[in-house]
Amino acid sequence: MTFFPQRFYEFSLGVTLLIQVLFPKLIPVGIILIALSVIALGIKRELRLCTTKVHLFFVLFYLAYVVGVFFTEVPKEAAHVLESKMSFVIFPVLFLFIPKRKVDFTPSIWLFSGALIVLFIWGIVSSMQCFRTSGSSSCFVSTPFSPIHHPTYTAIYYLTGFFMILRARKVGLKGFNRRIVLFLSIIFIAGYLLCMSLSALLFLLGLIVILGFIWFRGRFGTWKSIGMVVVMSIGLIVAVEQSKDTISDVEYTYNSVKEYLKSPKEFVKKADRYLVGNEERLVLWTISAEAIAAHPFGYGTGNIDVVIGNKLRSYGLNSMAEKNFNPHNQYLQTCIELGILGVTVLIGLFIMILKFAVKHRNITLLILTTSFIFNALFESMFQRQSGIVFFTLIVFFMILESLNQNQSGEKLTLRQEN
After folding, report:
1. Distance separating alpha carbons of residues 83 and 333, to the nearest angstrom
2. Which residues is 97 bridged to in the sheet?
């Protein structure tokens, strides 16, 4: 029988994941629960040190923001940024000491899966309320379906849940039989698609192509695999085409990019005509690149609104400047605030996580991180707590899970990772 502190630790992980999905403002409660469980295990001398390069790079990324405070023009905003990014330090510290005994991840994955089911039902209810008011079919996708988090983050939550239950099934965790996994998979895939995040859909298409090719190639050979992947991709595109809003978005984006490529400067100057999501991105990416070129070592922590606002006003885009847009690209945002060194640390962090995932054959961690890397091209993924807290927490959750068992699910001797 597992002693109490160990069970407390296992449930605290799941409860924290549940809180992040459904009640993100209460995440400090989850952090306190994990901290208390770690202290309880420490008192029983049931902890071992676990250091990885991922721990180091998360802390280095946070320290880059600390250094940036010395160059800021807006100290209050810089203090707010430091506070919002504290997960980059809190979770590495909480997972610096891990249980000596094998951790049972069944409660955590069930709680996370249950939270995603509730999130899905919540989204359907929210969509129905929107539909009663407006009568528009668009109420069942995108923001109306994702009332708690931005649709891109919600899509990543569902993607993580999908691969997490597949991994749970593979290692034989209790309760994850074929029917349960099929049921949960249908919900998570449906939730992902209903989020209708264009970047998330593009990532899904790429993922299907890559994983489909790998899977089919081992069974049918190269050429048949290519044909099957093409058919699957066409099927996904046809399914997406059923959404008029998505098709309209894609067509509008295509035409905007064509116009932008003809003359980026003229496109930006005429931007007050547009103010449509993807066109705004083109404008913001352009002025962000100009800002970085002028000051490659960064403007300081919290200065993003000042820099973007000034650049927009220099083009006469006062209405856009008033909205305090971020660059809608995490790499550009990091480079504006922290400079080339800061974005280098960010890229280094992603590389360290990918290396760990490959070394320990953790497909869930690999796909989750790749998804964040890709979506960060279109969103400032570490601008909101939905991204900061979830990414940091789930990365260390996956690291713990990887160190906890080998491919056959046997207990591993936890060790220091170099």
Report:
1. 17
2. 49
